[in-house]
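Why predict the complex rather than its parts? Because the way molecules touch one another can change local conformation, and only a joint prediction can capture that. The input here totals 856 residues.
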Amino acid sequence: MNAPFRLGIAGLGTVGTGVVKIVQTHGAALAAKAGRPVEIAAVSARNRSLDRGVDLSAYAWEDDATRLASREDVDCVIEVIGGSNGPAKALAEQALAAGKHVVTANKALIAHHGQELAEAAEAAGAALRFEAGVAGGIPVLKAIGEGLAANQLTRVFGVLNGTCNYILSEMETSEADYADVLAEAQRLGYAEADPSFDVGGIDAAHKLAILAALAFGTRIDFEGVVTEGIERITLADIKTARDMGYAIKLLGLARMHETGLEQRVRPCMVAETTPIGALTGVTNAVVAEGDFVGSCVFTGPGAGEGPTASAIVADVLDAARGIVTPAFGRPAANLKPAPRLQHGEEHSPYYLRFMLADRPGALAAIASALGEKGVSIHRMRQYGQGDPVPVVIETHDAHRDAIDAAVASISNLPVSQAPPVAIRIEEA
Amino acid sequence: MNAPFRLGIAGLGTVGTGVVKIVQTHGAALAAKAGRPVEIAAVSARNRSLDRGVDLSAYAWEDDATRLASREDVDCVIEVIGGSNGPAKALAEQALAAGKHVVTANKALIAHHGQELAEAAEAAGAALRFEAGVAGGIPVLKAIGEGLAANQLTRVFGVLNGTCNYILSEMETSEADYADVLAEAQRLGYAEADPSFDVGGIDAAHKLAILAALAFGTRIDFEGVVTEGIERITLADIKTARDMGYAIKLLGLARMHETGLEQRVRPCMVAETTPIGALTGVTNAVVAEGDFVGSCVFTGPGAGEGPTASAIVADVLDAARGIVTPAFGRPAANLKPAPRLQHGEEHSPYYLRFMLADRPGALAAIASALGEKGVSIHRMRQYGQGDPVPVVIETHDAHRDAIDAAVASISNLPVSQAPPVAIRIEEA
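Output of the joint prediction:
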């Protein structure tokens, strides 16, 4: 048997503890797969006395996580501290500088510093891997970076945040309002006390930026992700969407256009019969489209102790097998900055909802304002007899700037009684 | 730039031609990903003069495919000749013996000779890869062998044959009989003139045997796959299934039990709202369940020029990057023969259809025969008022031998007017 592959685990929350459990439970199988024993040498966390339900007595303890980077008995550092800066970043940098492999679940760290860390890893001949950072237990980075590597990918999108998908699908199922479902999600542990990272789309944007860089061979550009959360989605819109055959999903989407890279996280309408439209609960799903393969869908658990630890240990196994490939699938120096697609160039069909005064000519005023901006109507529905009365329009394919202009113009009309809502309809 | 990675392609049907197209179209990207140029050195097929729509003039030509194995300018042989013996096997053996990597789409070859070929590859320090052989363009072997390698897998199953899924879903959609839909599938090119390999379940069984070996670390055992095709599925059963919330799918399933490995390809009923139940057309899907990750679903195109070539070139890229890991995820010598699960030990709920004489006591006779064999009834439906009248029963979980005994006993009752039908209900 070859020399053992020795791990230093920084962070012993649920994910770090999950990694310990896998190594302790499946030691023999991991050794058979890696061709060498996979062992934990040292661990680090803030509180040594906390009972985490696993026996840590055989491992060295470091109070300071960054000291794992300089331990001679560590070949690979597992960073599950979290945060895009501070000790997580310092540890990753120091470990790579010392020639150690780094496996992390930290999407914020990679979204912000992926390029420099990838360069550092290559300079050191070490692996930098972050499968656990995107879509939890689903091996989607491996699928896109290796399994579909023969293709020019054209579009990558999916449901990347389980909290948001739980809230949206629960609003639909139980016909409850956003605030009530969010409170329930917090009670169940699906949402944080401060949910803004999830419901505001930031978490999904971190993941999307990573997916886009890997899919298109571009420099990671988190700041280029247009991000909008689910806070303003109403039960009314969810019901209307369903009535028209759609589900509302917080979609992360990256697509390469001739004029630039489109990256956005935004609530979208998706046909309810598609794998993405039918996705309920905290499950994640990623769709990758390539020029030769067509469309593949990867679905599974997007978070949690077991799934996240599963992805980390898969990365560990690759490193233990001696597989050291560039973090984003090609040498970091070859990753090109992509121009950002301009906002107005985005185009798709849109769902528009207006609250109109119930008076003659109201609909005509809307239709004419849309026509003036070049937005054509695919179908229209009026709901109920109230005043104001909700009117929903599904447009044909339209540029975003035309939609924005039409919505601005209509919201100034006297018949418009509330700010209009515009939600993109995505072919999924 | 490093030395080029040079390919010899044996077989220039649609898949081989697809590989040529990818290499010609994406040469620069493949080189960036592999860290070295990926080039075609030589090709071989039966008919040199055939116009295949690609320019082959820059490549050496071999009339005899096995000569690719001895060419000094070939690092990796791509075997897309097909067939479990003959030139495909000879080529793979000779190429591995010469230390060349072998990438193949040939599931029959691997299902029958995977163990000896894996041993030969390891002895030579060469890669043997066959992602394209299972589920076409979906990188499911990579997902199971690498992406989920941290887990003990508990069950792997899926829709592995697009032809059968097309026929079954088309029977449901168009309410047509098996023979008519098969004829249509043949006209569309989805089914061969002799469809028996597909509709008889053999093709799916080849793929399942490969999945099982990789998932459980066992020696491949194609002969151990219990195989039943879709030829006897009737429109009546499809309609009844739908009425009860199920779809009928040809499911390949492998599960490790304490007493042995269950491997079977068989029509099953699956809840229509699950990813597998909702799968229509020629699409494939594989579900993998692991002890830490939970359940992941991989969906995509299971056949065709582009998808199959995509999978082949992904394997080529790994080999070009220098990744040489054991074909079944761990050293071939460590793959243990698994005892086969005995037929009667299988258990699940079952769908039973009886054609009963419309006379008093008929139902009671059935119910009592089931009860005698220890099969309990979950729900029962009687359809229409004809004579004989179809009666459908969904059982609770039951062992297969109890079901067989009950069915045998009922088919001997005077009230039973036609052979009963028993279809397993699988939780998917």
